[in-house]
Amino acid sequence: MVKGIRRQGIRRGAQAAAVFCGAALVLTGCVSAGSDGGATAATASDGEVTVGIIGDQPDGGDPVDGGVLRFASYAPVRSLDPVKTQASGTTGGTELAAVYDVLVRYDAVKDEYEPRLAESLEESDDGLTWTLKLRDGITFSDGTPLDAAAVVASTERYNRLNGPDAQVFTDSVASVEAKDPSTVVYTLNQPWHQFPAMLSLGHGMIVAPSAGEGADFTPIGAGPFTVESLGQNELKLVAREDYWDGAPHLDGLSFVTIAGEKPKIDSLANGDIEMAYLRDPTYVAQAKQKFPGYLHRYSLTDQIQLNSRPGRPGADERIRQAVQYALDPEAVNQRVDGGIGDPGTEIFPEWSKWHDDAQAAPTFDPDKARALVEEAKADGAATRLTYVSVQDDRSQKYALTTEAMLENVGLTVDIDFVPTVTDMVRRLYVDHDYDIGYTALSLPDAAPYIRLYSALSSTSTNNSSGYHSEQMDALLAKIQQAPDEDAKRAAFAELQQQFTEHAPMVPMASGSNFVAWSPNVYGVTPTMDSVMLFDEAWVKK
Q1: Strand 104-107 vs strand 384-390: parallel, antiparallel, or unpaired?
Q2: CA dist 188 → 174, 198, 357, 405 (Å)
Q3: Bridge-based pairing state of the strands 234-239 and 532-533
Q4: Cα–Cα distance, 191 to 199 (Å, whole number)
Q5: Distance of alpha carbon 312 from its chain centroid, rounded?
Q6: In terms of DSSP H, where are the helices of 414-484?
Q7: 289, 503 Cβ separation under 8 angstroms
Q8: Global confidence as pTM
Q9: Which end of the chain is more exposed for a tag (fewer CB within 10 A), N or C?
Q10: What digits encode the pLDDT tens for the residues 136-170?
């Protein structure tokens, strides 16, 4: 059950007094304190912060109104239609949430879902029904009501247009019905205790009935901001005076494009921006020493994606296995990240609650890789691979290191650099025009199933590798329906075994995303997958 906590009680924790600590303690969990005195970060058994607000930031005092907060996103957003933009921190989820808000918010430190546009969300005893109650009086920015009919219509639109993770939803949910103007009932095909995660992502970003589709689409939502302009390198949003929970403190938001993570940190230090989204381990480590912000640790932040579609070299399982055995995550970590990363071939590393010591992860074995390449080549398999990569410094190092390791075992690699993450996503996930590439599933411990399903299910249109396996599909179903954490952890161990045997992709490392902000920024509220909410954010003058 997701408790219907009063909205005011969960809004202002990020504005409370912070504990003071030296920079040396930032890396081990010195965090801001919530309004209830509780820490706003969580640590793993290794003592490192896994998720939460960290950093040395003084009490901001009372919120002040005015100003535009400038945020350097990870990648530029090309569309504000939730069916076209993945609702994650790296791919436009923060921008979408500013326009649409979300039905429920995930609190990663408490590990629970809290109502937002919803007033409450309750699970039935048999786990097959979820009942959502909407708050009274919420309107879209065009003045029309956000009621149960609008939620159903938005959900149907999202699924019909095959938005991100739509197939996870349609394969799991039998029906979505408006029982009355304020009540939506979701009836599931099978129990799924983590179903609220769907309502904190794209399905929870409700599009107004008047928004339209295709070329006629207009981003109309119930969020705290509306769109002023969307250009090639900047998205400008302005505050809504009639936002359901009160006008935002900020006058607006500006999401800007800055190529490279060092320039982002420099811009943050110079006051040219107030926030920046960082993923590169080197710059995450630097930024944590300089700025407060939100840290989120993920599994599978580095992986080598393999295209196993017919006609591609990876269609031969021996080629995929050879790639798996040829790559040494620790050596990549040393050459690319100077040894500061968290390398490993386990899907869930030791710090994850889903880690199981019984999981059989692959090991570096170049001799075995050479034998597989020779065997496949003798049978006529193609051994020349096109590696698609973004053209930033770290991705170039990663590509060149991978190329050297693969060519060491008899494979030939042609690197094809593309300008932006958006271009790479198109090559891998839309056109499927690649053989291998560096990607990240970035599995949050809260809801890893959703992304694993999208990447691995035989029926998922987001399965860029083309990997099809009835055994994998059965394992995914087992994970989804697991009655408790022990059963889910055991199912994940079976999934690791499947990875090792069939190499649908190659895990290389876990890592952290860090949303850094200037010390004068307050009131930013994180939700699922490092998406940031700005309705209570403010900048101290």
Answers
A1: unpaired
A2: 5, 13, 33, 46
A3: unpaired
A4: 16
A5: 28
A6: 421-425, 448-456, 470-481
A7: no
A8: 0.85
A9: C
A10: 999 999 999 999 999 999 999 999 999 989 999 99
